[in-house]
Amino acid sequence: MTQLTKDEVKHHAGLAWLAVTDAEAEAYVASLGGIVDFVKELQEVDTEQVEPMTHPLQVFNVLREDVPTDVLDREEMLKSVKEHEAGQIKVPNIL
User: What Cα–Cα distance (Å) separates residue 46 from each residue in 2, 20, 28, 52, 76?
Assistant: First the structure.
């Protein structure tokens, strides 16, 4: 297992603008060493035949095609508005 020193942990914490106490640095020595070892294992994996990907799972577009349809009966809709003229809804002036 890769053994980091407490000073190395404190140095890297400082690079990340993290304040760690001596006790915290001591606690991170073992866990960060394990992470470094795992990264070394990953670097040994042969990925020559693996195509680069942006996501580990295949992503499908779940949106439907945008097809215009008549969802409202215009005459029925105009019956529910306060005022309308020539098939268009009248709204109050804003400016």
Answer: 22, 37, 30, 13, 66
Residue located via tokens 């914490």 = 13
Predicted TM-score (pTM) of this structure: 0.48
Q: Which amino acid is at 13?
A: A
**Chain length of the chain:** 95
Residue type at 14 in one-letter notation: G
Q: How far is it, in rounded angstroms, from Cα 3 to Cα 30?
A: 7
- Which residue has 């020559």 as its token pair? 48
Q: pLDDT digit string (tens) for 1-19?
A: 778 899 999 999 999 999 9
- Tell me what pLDDT residue 30 has: 83
Cα–Cα dist 38/14, whole Å = 23
